[in-house]
Recover the amino acids of this structure.
């Protein structure tokens, strides 16, 4: 190996995590996972499935376990590549909760009580456990454990990321320079995919009208049915106008699936009716998701392969996590662990 390869500047570290919530939909795919996949060559990527976060609200154990496998299989099917990235389950890597403890000892209680997501979630529950309050500290630990430069997150997680930055700064200030300040990475393309039945609401797994949500594992006939019966607007022009949220959403979806610009698609469908347009959108979505579903179907049956992926991901993540944690423990004054 030549000398220059050793001196190659380190790639920026990207980390993002998601809860094992079951099925991913087209909004998750076009708005998030597809973009994560595109970062894999130029970044050192960590993708975590955060099961420890999942238990901050009531969960059924067997379901949590199944959802974790299923999410992993879906992420791989959607293009997250275990050979280029570290795909891991949070509870497999020792250090997340340990770092969260140290960070929690630097975090004012009031700051956690003011988190909007905590307020929302606790309003919906009869009794609130401490884990829910501590959730953002654990998330900060997820990020800082790997010294992430960039954290792809949705808008709803920006406040949590701010806390991670605050805690990193506090630690650096109280002890000594240790953590980089992670920056949010909010992608523009396709980040707002709306329900096919109500284009003013985001596409969602919890939408009571499931006809509005396309899942990445939907079969072609299900996809076509959902797209063809999507709500459109009055008028007949295929344009992404403000008063045409339904058509605009379909254009965004088609642009996301084909990689073509909305303006180009508008020109292509000038003078054509909604029917033709919807058929083309359905074709584009099927072409995008069909390989995802086929790969998923294979993987979900292959528990050995899933276990191999998780083992490799956990080992690789653990090496980084352990280095950070040792440094942190040393800085706060813990006696070095006997080896
Ligand atoms: N709270 C995030 C969500 O619900 C999930 C998450 C946990 C996360 N740890 C993270 C996201 C670290 C980014 C980085 O979407």
């Amino acid at each position: 190996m030549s000398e220059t390869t050793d001196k190659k500047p380190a790639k920026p570290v990207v980390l993002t995590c998601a809860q094992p919530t079951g099925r991913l939909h087209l909004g998750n795919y076009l708005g998030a996972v597809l973009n994560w996949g595109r970062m894999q060559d130029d970044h050192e990527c960590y993708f975590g499935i955060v099961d420890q976060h999942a238990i901050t609200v009531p969960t059924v154990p067997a379901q949590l376990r199944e959802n974790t496998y299923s999410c992993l299989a879906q992420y791989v099917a959607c293009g997250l590549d275990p050979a280029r990235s570290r795909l891991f389950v949070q509870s497999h890597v020792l250090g997340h909760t340990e770092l969260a403890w140290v960070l929690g000892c630097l975090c004012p209680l009031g700051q956690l009580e003011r988190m909007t997501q905590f307020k929302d979630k606790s309003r919906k529950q009869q009794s609130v456990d401490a884990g829910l309050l501590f959730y953002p500290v654990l998330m900060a630990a997820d990020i800082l454990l790997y010294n992430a430069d960039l954290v792809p997150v949705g808008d709803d997680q920006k406040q949590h990321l701010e806390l991670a930055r605050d805690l990193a700064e506090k630690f650096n200030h109280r002890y000594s320079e240790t953590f980089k300040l992670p920056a949010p990475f909010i992608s523009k393309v396709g980040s707002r995919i709306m329900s096919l039945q109500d284009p003013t609401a985001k596409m969602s797994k919890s939408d009571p009208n499931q006809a509005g949500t396309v899942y990445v594992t939907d079969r072609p006939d299900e996809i076509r049915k959902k797209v063809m019966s999507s709500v459109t607007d009055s008028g007949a022009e295929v344009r992404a106008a403000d008063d045409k949220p339904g058509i605009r959403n379909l254009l965004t979806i088609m642009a996301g699936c084909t990689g073509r610009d909305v303006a180009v698609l508008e020109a292509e469908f000038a003078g054509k009716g909604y029917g033709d347009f919807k058929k083309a959108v359905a074709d584009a979505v099927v072409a995008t998701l069909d390989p995802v579903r086929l790969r998923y179907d294979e993987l979900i049956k292959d528990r050995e392969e899933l276990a191999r992926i998780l083992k490799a991901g956990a080992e690789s993540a653990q090496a980084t996590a352990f280095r950070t944690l040792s440094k942190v423990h040393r800085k706060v004054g813990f006696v070095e662990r006997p080896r």
Observations:
- The radius of gyration is 22 Å.
- The pocket of tryptophan is lined by residues 15-19, 50, 53, 139, 142-143, 151, 153, 157, 160 (CB under 6 Å).
